[in-house]
Amino acid sequence: MLSVGIIGLGNMGMLHLRNCRHVDGVKVVSVADKSKKALKKAEALGVKNLFTNYQDLLKGPPKIDVAIIALPNFLHFESVQRALEEGVDVFVEKPLASTVEECEKIVRLVEKSGRKLMVGHNMRFIEAIEKMKVAIEDGRIGDLEVVTLEQILNGPFTHGMMPRPVAEWWFDPRKVGGGVLLDLGYHLVDLFRFFVEEDSDVILSHLSYKFNLPIEDGAIIVLRSCESGARGIINVGWFQKSVFPEYNFRVILHGCAGFISSESLVPRNIYFHAIKEGTKNILRRILRTKIKPLSYSYYYEAYYKELLSFFDCIKNDLNPPVSAVDGLKTLSLIEQAYKKSNKQ
């Protein structure tokens, strides 16, 4: 049984906590967060060891095997460093750290510690993306020429029925490290790297500031792979109100022998899919069989699948599919895009 400690109980931390409850051979034994309200939620889910300081969680008792880190961006480096120094394997939400320099240090720390580290690039685990990757590997569309990727959402302004204040660190460039390009664009840059499997450069970067914030709320960048010359066109924004389960996201792979779009691979009616999968999970609960967490949402199931992959790597001594080096290379392209940006 792997003992897990979750550091940070915001939206992502609580999501990982709930998902861990459905992974065989895994138990969340401790959590850390400054919010007493968040700790009470974790306690209600069966977690007995509650900490307000994550360093106390890492030192124990109880001793943990794995740390899941879901803290704000500016706290990633220090928490990852301390976790590796305590000899535990680490799953950290993206970005790996706030700067390329910090990412480089983490890469060296991972190599020195011999521990496993995986970065939360969940979009690689979306079923449609997995099928597209197989299509490239099978040569179904020929050599890859252009990848178009876009995602337009609410960003930090997302809320439920009752609006709530956005955490101040979201709008502090020194703490968050960037706006929508780092938030959503990061995932799409990683997907481009995932598809082309080559080092790449940024050849165009345009940032927009519709809401007059100190960080960008829209971005369009163009990438080019260094060997094959495949291009990636990325469009991201925080300017659209979307209502779950609607999801304004798509990827198109253009090859010399054909093309494939994610929109042809996702459920035709996302609402019907949610009802169907939700009903299946209700029946699974009644029959006391294993449920499929978040399957009703289609896209969000990727968060569960990435954790399954990470724990499988630990149990079978495999290399994580998203390494610290992947986190470093993705953030390097993001920083390059910021430096080349034409702000307007």
Oligomer: single chain
CATH architecture term of the largest domain: 2-Layer Sandwich
Mean pLDDT over the full residue set: 94
- Total helices: the number is 11
| Count of beta strands | 13
CATH topology descriptor of the largest domain:
Dihydrodipicolinate Reductase, domain 2
The structure class reads alpha/beta
Instruction: Give the CA-based shape.
Output: globular
Strand order of the largest sheet: 12-11-7-10-9-8-13
CATH domain class of the largest domain? Alpha Beta
* Approximate helicity band: 25-40%
The tally of structural domains comes to 2
CATH superfamily of the largest domain: Dihydrodipicolinate Reductase, domain 2
Radius of gyration: 20 Å
